[in-house]
Design brief:
Elements: E1 2-6, H1 15-32, H2 38-48, H3 52-56, H4 63-66, H5 74-95, H6 97-118, E2 126-127, H7 130-143, E3 148-155, E4 158-165, H8 166-182, H9 193-213, H10 217-223, E5 256-257
Parallel strand pairs: 2-5
Antiparallel strand pairs: 1-3, 3-4
Helix pairs in contact: 1-5, 5-6, 5-7, 6-7, 6-9, 7-9, 8-9
Length: 258
């Protein structure tokens, strides 16, 4: 189950969201060919990926930021950019361009620190923008809990697109991160579940001042958790029908992906 779009239009052009997407894609493309060389990959990660043991020892703090612009595969990059594209424009619309940029970066740094706390002596590198994007999702949940999100559900050979409230989709996603974190070894590679959950929490907390300025619970009472702009309607005829599920999967689970 993953989102493909929301029905929540933004009132201004999300320049920062687009710029972040371009930066992530460009950095991945520029470093992509280095992934074929173990030596180059090791050098890249040693310099810019987040290694919790180094941060715990008091150095390489810059990697809390630089690691958020690295990705382990095309699938990793594509999934993160899809989530940023769906949820980022609305948060930028509410916060303003520069505030949203600061919010995004602080969410990513906070997610990295929580990952370090969960695996303080790990030497497995952490890469990916998911912690920062999870912060965007946390803020989105607070401001637009009832905005409709279109979900593509895949159950073996069953495919269907349907709309659900954002609080359902984001609540399920967050629950999956907690369950994944509880069932994973924090010192091993794989998906950085605690970075995801931590970034979500950081973003939600950082959005509370904006939510309070909008009126807090009264804002929910006025908007009923819906977007401030008239929602977009999509024709179901535009949703592609998929005949069967592809069995290919090029995602790599190590290093930590967030």
């Amino acid at each position: 189950m993953f989102p493909i779009r929301d029905h929540n239009p933004s009132g201004r052009t999300p320049y920062v969201t687009y710029a972040l997407m371009v930066a992530n894609i460009a950095i991945f493309v520029l470093t992509y060919f280095g992934y074929d060389s173990p030596r180059s990959l090791t050098a890249l990660y040693n310099a810019y990926a987040l290694l919790p043991a180094k941060v715990t020892s008091g150095y390489d703090w810059k990697t809390l930021l630089t690691s958020t612009f690295l990705h382990g595969s095309w699938m990793h990059l594509g999934g993160n950019m899809l989530f940023l594209w769906i949820f980022g424009d609305n948060m930028e619309d509410e916060m303003g361009h520069f505030t949203f940029l600061a919010f995004y970066l602080v969410s990513g740094i906070g997610a990295g620190l929580i990952h370090v706390a969960s695996a303080p002596y790990s030497l497995v590198p952490l890469v990916g923008a998911s912690g920062a994007i999870a912060g965007v999702m946390g803020g989105y949940l607070l401001l637009f809990p009832r905005a409709r999100v279109d979900i593509l559900l895949i159950l073996i050979v069953y495919f269907r697109v349907f709309s659900i409230p954002a609080f359902v989709m984001l609540g399920v996603w967050l629950g999956m991160q907690f369950l994944g974190g509880i069932g994973s070894d924090p010192q091993a590679g794989g998906v950085a579940y605690w970075a995801h959950a931590g970034g979500f929490g950081v973003g939600l907390v950082l959005t509370i001042p904006l939510w309070l300025r909008r009126g807090g619970p009264a804002y929910w009472g006025k908007t009923h958790g819906q977007p401030p702009h008239p929602e977009v309607s999509y024709s179901t005829s535009r949703i592609p029908r998929v005949a069967r599920k592809s069995t290919s999967d090029d995602r790599r689970n190590s290093p930590w992906d967030r």
